[in-house]
Amino acid sequence: MKQFILTFILLLGAWMASMQAQGITGKWKCPKEFLYSLMFNTEDLHGHYKFNDDGTFSISVNAGRMRGNASARSVYIKVKGRYSVVDGRITTAVNPEDVHYRVDADMRDPDFPDVGVGRRVSAPEYDAAMVEAAAQEDRMERELRWIWEWKDVPMTLADRTLAIGDRIRLYRGKADGMTGYTAMQTSKASTNYAMNILRHYPKKTARQWAMATLEQGAYKDKSPYSMYTLGKAYIAGTGLKADTVKGIQLLEEAGRMGYDRAYITLGNIFKYAQYGIGQDFSRAYAYYSAGAGIGSAVCIYAKGYMLYKGLGCTQDYRAAVECFKAAADAGHARSMYMLGLCYRNGYGVERNTDRAAEYLNMARKAGCRDAKTELSFPDPESGSGKVSDADMVQGAGAADLPAGSYHGSMVMYDWSGKYIVWEKPMSMTVKPQGREMAGRMSVGKASTSFKAGISSGGTLLFRNGSIMLEDRYAPKGMISYDMRNMAIAAKADGLHGRLTLYSTSSKEPGRPVGIFLKHDCH
Q1: What is the share, in percent, of the chain residues with pLDDT greater than 70?
Q2: Is residue 521 classed exposed, middle or buried when 0-12, 13-18 and 19+ CB atoms within 10 A define those classes?
């Protein structure tokens, strides 16, 4: 009796499993969104699963070349195995010998040019293509086993739709639509592939899949990388209508979730006025600071750089040095270089030539070319460390600037305005021209003409005029600056002024510049 009961239970279990399996028997088509998620970089995609009554199943996927993309390949996958369904969960058993891949590079073998089909290519191109094809086959083996290997995976059957886990959804009948697609936690690879489609692939259904993938990753899966990628796409208008507000919001959320690259990108956007967004050093400094707060070495360096020059914040060498030290300890080469400059010049720390050489050599070995250049100079930028005794003009009296000729000197300071970097002879002529002033300025061997209006406070506001000035850290030792404004005040020994410069190449203000002139009396 016991044996009969046991046999009955086993037969009942087998019958129930058979009944559960009967619902999925037959042919199921793969929708395009599922096939795109395999990232074959192809256009002509077809695939289906087939579950048989005898507990066997097969998979067939064919992927043709993407139109106009010479690097794409034809891909074929054939899989056979067995399956079982128990309590709404499916398990498979697949013999590795029943898994077949083929990647066709669509090229003729140069050794047999009259055999087979495909493009005629050179031997090196053919060899490279074969290596890439083999690498793609290896990727398929490592990364695509989830499409046929299941162990007690939840299965849902409803309305002519079969979902296996949360990565595979199959359909009976036509399966080209994009509706109802549910992906697994969006991977970095699928996010990158989606962006590649948006950039280069015009087919509507593919672009719909790409947007569905990116939006799911950003809004549903809360993937910081997907937020970052979609945010950049919105800001740059990459493959979709530009929306800087939405893009910045996505990048900020990615940053708050710990993705430091989002803060780096946001800081750079506002520091360098990228994508048509206005330059805002204060906002750039805030983003770099946020990234520094989560430990990003690049953001710590960027924050230090802003402090070093006083961009968007109060200029502070000491605070900059602390940032550079922290980033250098994390292996950041540029921070090692900046620390070397600080020790060599005595900026924010006591001057120490040995420590300077140590950091500069570390930076040089880490690949920083500027460190090698700095080591070639016999003396530091600050020279003897002469401290400026001239006041930096805060008021102005340009409205009372008499027409005529002036001569004197121009002095460039370090970023704090404390140390003199260099001093050069300067001359300037000024004459009224309607409601503006026109003139010519010469500094050393450089000379430029200019036109300027006068602000209500008396500051000269240059309408045009740029000048080449010496800069130790420029690639060729000179930087072209646009002249922005000049405040001038009358002093007992002549005119003192402050010239504001802006480098269009680096998109930054220049160092503090003082002007000391005397009127040429005739």
Answers
A1: 78
A2: exposed
pLDDT band at 8; cut points 50, 70, 90: very low
| The token pair that represents 148 in the structure block | 């046929």
What is the residue-wise DSSP string for 67-112? TT-TT--EEEEEEEEEEEEETTEEEEE--GGGEEEEEE--EE-TTS
- CB 275, CB 261: distance < 8 Å: no
SS3 387: strand
Integer CA distances (angstroms), 239 to 21, 37, 183, 209, 412, in order: 43, 18, 21, 13, 46
The pTM of the full predicted model, rounded to 2 decimals, is 0.70
- The answer to whether the beta carbons of residues 380 and 394 sit under 8 Å apart is no
Q: What is the pLDDT of residue 490?
A: 76
Q: What is the mean pLDDT of the chain?
A: 83
Alpha carbon of 500 to those of 287, 382, 426, 445: distances in Å? 26, 20, 16, 20
Q: DSSP character for 66? A: P
Q: Taking Cα atoms as reference points, which of 286, 261, 287, 284 lies closest to residue 271? A: 284
Spatial contact of 472 and 381, defined as CB atoms under 8 Å apart: yes
Torsion angle (degrees, nearest 10) of CA 323, 326, 330, 333: 40
**Which long-range contacts (C-beta less than 8 Å, at least 24 apart) are formed by 354-360?**
356/380, 359/328, 360/336
Amino acid at site 303: K
Reported as a pLDDT band with limits 50, 70 and 90, residue 181 is very low
**CA–CA distance, 488 with 514 (Å, rounded to integer):** 10
Distance CA 206, CA 262 (A): 27
Q: Could you give the CA distance from residue 12 to residue 326 in angstroms, rounded to a whole number?
A: 68
- In which element (H, E) is residue 155 found? strand 153-158
Which is it for strands 119-120 and 107-108: parallel, antiparallel or unpaired? parallel
Cα 438 to Cα 229: distance, rounded to the nearest angstrom = 49
Q: How confident is the model at residue 20 (pLDDT cuts 50, 70, 90)?
A: low
Residue 148 phi/psi, 5° resolution?
Answer: -135, -10
What pLDDT is recorded for position 284?
Answer: 97
Angle made by CA atoms 342, 348, 353, in degrees to the nearest 5: 40
How sure is the predictor about 257, in pLDDT bands with cuts at 50, 70 and 90? Answer: very high
Tokens of 135: 């690498």
Beta strands 161-164 and 74-86 are unpaired
pLDDT of 507 > 60? The answer is yes
> Can you tell me the distance from the alpha carbon of 87 to that of 13, in angstroms, rounded to the nearest whole number?
10
